[in-house]
Fold this protein.
Amino acid sequence: MKHLSEEDLIAYQLHESSSEAAISGHLERCSECADLSEAIAETLRVFSAEPVPQPDLEYNWQRLRGNLSVLTPQRRSPFEFLRRPWAWPALGVATAALILLAVFSLQTHRPHPARPNYAINGHGPLTTQPIDSALANHLDSAERLLTEVNNSPGPLDDVTRQQAHDLLLKNANYVQRARDSGDIADAVVLEHFGRVLTTLDNEPQTPHSTWRLRLEMNTSGLLLDIRILRQNDDISQGVAQ
Amino acid sequence: MDKAEKEAIRDVLAGNRDAYRVLMDRHFGTVTRIAFRITGNEADAEEAAQEAFLRAYNKLPSFRQDSAFSTWITRIVMNTAINLVERRNRDLSYQGPRIADEPTPADHTVRVAGNQASPEGELLNREATSLRQAAMAQLTPMERTAFTLRHMEDIPMAEIAIALNVTTNSAKQAVFRAVSKLRQSLMPIAGGIR
């Protein structure tokens, strides 16, 4: 007959064995194993009756309390959400979406190349790039009109007002073209000129309307800006020649 | 974990350290008993229990309340008690409890047992206690912990394994080794039973 090991019998006595019924059956037939099993049980009985002293709770509390610091509420970490099970997949999806958005934006919205500019007269930089002849003619007309506005003693005559009306549409086109080409300096000056033209075209003429326009719209400063634009154009043309 | 314990933890975390008394009232007895099983003496048991409650208090902000406080503090005290036993074993200068007429835990003093039992009975009891202590002293801290918690405290083997940071099978083997060693220690007195 094959005897049981000590380990099997200890597991049996501690109710940790997976084959209690088989071991129990064996112990009924094998006196040698039954003796060993009883010795193990006796050992366990000897060590199961050890009394445990009761602690003095009040004494222990007072002793412990002196070592307790006052806790402050812990601030939640901004990355606390990363512990949640859905956090990492969601973060992955969000990152992929951001990358796609960035690629799409780069393809559809290419920035205009930067150009060197000079700042003058408090209106922002003016360009040194050559301008086309149509724009040169427009600036020429603008200069003449503003000279008239700045020097007229009273209300403007009908010819000048008609000239302002004609320049209004053309000026709007040049403003748009300057914006599209990224020439901010031209666009700023021409927008200023556009506001002057709009005022001339819409407001009724009074004895003081021209004077007020000069004061409110700083037409002298605008005239200087337009002359500088034209001068830039002349220099550029000269360099080109 | 019941409502009273959750409220106590919330109050402690809000700055009311006296609320910790609720948790201590409920669990200090069990924790000290477990510590006593591992350390084998009252003074060390109380020291381990004190240390366990202090550690638990300081770690309370990180305690995730998806498990019971009792389970958590049990694990902590198992570790602190084992560490204390190992420290005592290393510390050769450690002196055990001394006898005094008016014993105090702070001084590590104890009174000689009372005279309720007869002198013969007292002698036998003391001898039996001494033999048990000598047998237990043969065990490693892990064997002693695994054995006492499984056999005396009836704590499931899986929980003991988690507290000891070993596999369940390793914890079982520690218990089996402990029982075998204890039986060997008692063999001379028991008349050489196998």
The interface with chain B takes residues 6-7, 10-11, 13-14, 16, 35-36, 39-40, 42-44, 46-48, 50, 52-57, 59-61, 63-65, 67-74 of chain A (CB under 8 Å).
